[in-house]
């Protein structure tokens, strides 16, 4: 059995490791994420409304498509409201903490 000294071990390469982000960078990324999420919820609501209008005008015969779009928009809005409620609840809890 052969024992090698530690000097023969090569150092770990950090070329593929991302640099540490600053709090400002993280805030920008999180803000962009929230903005994109809200835009997606809004777009789902708009798409649902357009499909409902087309169905009412007789341009679409498939009610399944209209119902799925409406339920998708409704679920996305409910999830957004629940996240908002949790954020507000967390903020209130932090404000009640004593320093």
Automatic annotation (TrEMBL):
Supply the gene name. fliE
Organism expressing this protein natively: Brevibacillus brevis (Bacillus brevis)
Pfam families, per this entry?
A: FliE
Q: What is this protein called?
A: Flagellar hook-basal body complex protein FliE
User: Keyword set for this entry?
Assistant: Bacterial flagellum, Cell projection, Cilium, Flagellum
Q: Where in the cell is the protein located?
A: Bacterial flagellum basal body
**What family is this?**
Belongs to the FliE family.
HAMAP family in the record, alphabetically? FliE (MF_00724)
The record, for NCBIfam families, names: fliE (TIGR00205)
